[in-house]
Write a structure and sequence with these properties.
Strand content: 5-15%
Helix content: 55-70%
Number of strands: 12
Strand order of the largest sheet: 4-3-6-7-5-8-9-12
Largest sheet: 8 strands, mixed
Shape: elongated
């Protein structure tokens, strides 16, 4: 299976679909080849899943959405070709830096299969993984098609929203459910209600109205499905297709051009394609974070593994696992960049402390930038701490290596320049009239030569200071014995001047180092703040969308006289509003104080 184009340039195009999920020995399995393709996609994805009864033309519909007739297998045989879930993806010219991923599912009521549990698992995955969920039905919205969709009402029993379930879990489903699209194929009836022509959307809304009475079990099930669709899918719409052509030509449908098809069929088809290609419904996880190809792979793996282990898929656990995998990968990617740059300082000729510190500051900022581009919200600060500590460890290790090497070089130069002075001090050569003046002159000359040779050495000043302080007692002794020194000469000596100058330079270097470190951490804190605000905005957008949908349903229930349903929807709205208000009050500084101790230093720096 080959993939053409460059995903970063938004030119991805799979030549043919690939199976993504299949059933083996009663358990769902994943196709490594498909996962490899998805792993390469770094852009956010619009994920469209199509479900429906067997032999209803789902694959043909997917080929239309892909605008490629030679993708999913389509023919007029009685045997269904699609088993499990197949995938096909391409870039979207109308939406730069986004990818369209199509998921074609095996048909309901396949006589060769007869496995209801498999159906439910496949369609549960389709809902959990998609951002747009298409139900493909035939002829009209009748009881059979609604019965096919009845698995939706069981999703609350097959999904856990949180690791610690509570009574409000069902109210959060609207935050993870995709948009709902009902496609009616081969519609021959007039779109007419009570003598009035209606649009497909109006037709769907009429079908989704609740029965006034819920006395019988049948009526309760009737309303339960409609409530589930209305309450949990954040938006819904309908497209109604007439038959594409004469039934005798259907076996060759794949080869027919638009001019050979029914005009109204082509028109509706183009409207659906336009809706999918322009509808801004990128896949997000709970919390509002965008899903790229890499993230989609982790979501799929986690959900499939949970199902294979007989565990109910837990949305919170799945997102937590995704955050863990993505953030660790983000750390690894950032550290690889940092380490690759640091390796340039492995050669002795490159080992200069000032350059190392300068580049450490710049590269660590860029490493955090790389981390934040890939990472998801790191509320614990765990991965930020790991990245910072690892980079600092590398920096300190190289710093120690540079200092050790520099100290060795400086001691060699100093020993050479000071050898005759040390010999004269030891022999008492300077302990005679005028000896201290001679010592000062020789010392000044030796220091000048030493500094010329060690001007690029990081430990030059430190080694010189140590030598001068070590020799100070003997130098002072020479000064005291020189009785011919004038008062002015005794007040200021070359030694004292040099010690003062060297220490002043060292203090200046330390101040510059601290200022650079402060700037580095301010830059990193700003990156963390932007990531925090981005996560906050994503969560608020997610909650706002859910609230707007719920508010709309409240009004519809009231208009239908369904006051109890309106009240339940109002409770759901209040629940979402409370979460929205809490999220809107999230404070970055409070986040730093409460999330992790390693942020305290940065907090002090930034006030």
């Amino acid at each position: 299976m080959s993939v053409t184009g460059d995903t970063t340039a938004n030119k991805l195009k799979m030549e043919k679909p690939l199976v993504l999920v299949y059933n083996k020995d009663g358990k769902l399995q994943l196709n490594p080849e498909a996962l490899k393709v998805l792993q390469s996609i770094e852009d956010p994805m619009v994920v469209v899943a199509v479900v429906g009864a067997v032999r209803t033309g789902k694959s043909y519909l997917m080929n239309c959405l892909m605008e490629d007739k030679n993708g999913f297998s389509v023919d007029s045989a009685l045997q269904s070709h699609t088993k499990g879930i197949w995938m096909w993806c391409r870039s979207l010219p109308q939406r730069p830096n986004e990818v369209l991923l199509l998921l074609d599912t095996e048909g309901l009521r396949d006589p060769e299969k007869g496995d209801t549990d498999n159906d439910h698992s496949i369609y549960l995955l389709a809902i959990l993984l998609s951002s747009i969920f298409i139900y493909n039905g035939k002829n009209q919205i009748d009881q059979q098609s609604l019965q096919d969709l009845h698995f939706v009402t069981e999703l609350s029993k097959r999904i856990l929203m949180k690791t610690q379930p509570d009574a409000c879990d069902s109210w959060d489903l609207v935050r993870v459910f995709p948009d709902f699209v009902w496609v009616i194929r081969d519609l021959t009836l007039d779109m007419n209600i009570d003598g009035n022509n209606v649009t497909p959307n109006e037709y769907l809304e009429q079908i989704l109205k609740l029965k006034d009475s819920e006395i019988s079990e049948q009526d309760k099930k009737y309303n339960e499905l409609r409530r589930c669709i209305r309450n949990n899918f954040p938006s819904r719409c309908c497209f109604a297709f007439p038959p594409p052509t004469h039934w005798k030509k259907l076996k060759h449908l794949q080869e027919l051009e638009d001019k050979d098809l029914d005009e109204d069929f082509v028109k509706e088809q183009q409207q659906l394609i336009s809706y999918i290609h322009t509808h801004r419904k990128v896949k997000r996880v709970l919390g509002g974070q965008l899903v790229t190809g890499r993230r989609f792979v982790e979501l799929t793996k986690t959900y499939v593994n949970m199902m294979a282990d007989g565990v109910l898929p837990c949305v919170e656990s799945c997102v937590a696992k995704l955050v863990e995998v993505e953030n660790q990968a983000a750390v690894d990617e950032a550290l690889k960049f940092y380490d690759d740059e640091m390796k340039k300082f492995s050669e002795p000729r490159c080992l200069t402390m000032s350059k190392l510190t300068e580049n450490h500051n710049a590269w660590s900022i860029e490493a955090f930038n790389i981390f934040h581009k890939r990472s998801m919200n790191d509320n614990s600060g765990k991965y930020i701490k790991q990245l910072e500590e690892t980079m600092n460890s590398t920096y300190k290790s190289l710093s120690a290596k540079i200092k050790e090497k520099s100290e060795e070089q400086c001691k060699v130069h100093l020993a050479k320049e000071m050898s005759s002075i040390k010999e004269n001090l030891a022999s008492g050569h300077y302990q005679s009239p005028g000896g201290f003046q001679k010592l000062n002159a020789e010392l000044e000359k030796a220091i000048k030569h030493y500094e010329e040779k060690t001007k690029n050495e990081t430990e030059g000043s430190a080694v010189l200071t140590h030598f001068l302080e070590e020799e100070k007692p003997r130098l002072d002794q020479v000064q005291e014995m020189d009785s011919r020194l004038t008062e002015e000469q005794m007040r200021v000596s070359a030694l004292e001047e040099e010690l003062s100058r060297v220490k002043s330079e060292m203090e200046k270097m330390e101040q510059e180092r601290k200022a650079a470190e402060k700037h580095r951490k301010e830059e990193i804190v700003e990156q963390i703040r932007k990531k925090f605000e981005e996560g906050k905005e994503c969560r608020m957008e997610e909650l706002k969308e859910a609230m707007e949908h719920t508010r709309s349903e409240i009004q519809k229930y009231k208009a239908e006289g369904r006051m109890e349903d309106a009240e339940r929807a109002q409770q759901m709205y209040d629940y979402l509003m409370k979460k929205y208000e809490v999220t809107s009050k999230w404070s970055f500084m409070k986040f730093l104080r409460e999330s992790a101790a390693e942020f305290r230093l940065w907090m002090e720096i930034t006030g």
